[in-house]
Amino acid sequence: MIDIDNLFEKFLRKYLAENAGKYTEDQLEDKISEIFGDFGKTPLAELEGKSPVDYFSEKKDEELIEELKTCVLTGVSPSDFLCDELERRNSVEDGLIDCVNPENDELSVYCVNILNSIGSVKAVKKYLEILLSGKAGDSLAELITETLCDNADLVKDEIVEKYDQAGEIKKYLVEILANCSPDDDVFGILRDEFLSHKNEIALYASYLTKYGDDRALPLFEEAIKDDGIKYADFKELKLGIEEFGGEYSDTRDFSSDKTFKIIKGN
Q1: Which end of the chain is more exposed for a tag (fewer CB within 10 A), N or C?
Q2: For residue range 73-107, what is the model confidence (pLDDT) as tens digits?
Q3: CA separation for the pair 108, 65 (Å, rounded)
């Protein structure tokens, strides 16, 4: 395995030496992407006379995946040229899915990002299995949640079925459900979570608002009446009420609320 980033550093140092005094620091910063692009097309002795782009484009699918795994497992950042080449190949889909495993969050995050770039839907089922296992680290769980939000209807039925037994994972599942198409079971879950999270009203109100079912309107209208409501919760509820065609115009005093003070610069 060759550390492409180290080769770029060497290339950049040579460029800076050859162009000393020609550019200001800001101009050089603006040129970095251009220099990196030139580097990608430059034949290098360390790559058997191939450019970084050609070096990876000539590799087989399994070689690219193995290089990705080796980089991560040895603490070397995978080259952008490696990831770009993987993203150009739909044929690597199955191999990348096999690498998604909660035992290695970092490798899995790379693979999920690449799979997202190639538009993989096949991976969705495995993502949900990993999320429901509760074994994924925060970074992987958050990325999987974000991905499943874009494919929510594909996993809706299984989430609804297993929701009650999901424990701590519910915080991810409820976010996914907020992106589903209309469904009484889904609304019931979002409603119940809103009513049971009095300390996170803004978050769970935002899920109901995003879901778009106007049966949430009376829930918001009731919750906003609370004399002890926080300013952030009040704002989210008011926005939700207006989103569902309602109106709230009562004057409220939030002068002692910490969030309100920060926003108003007090």
Answers
A1: C
A2: 999 999 999 999 999 999 999 999 999 999 999 99
A3: 12
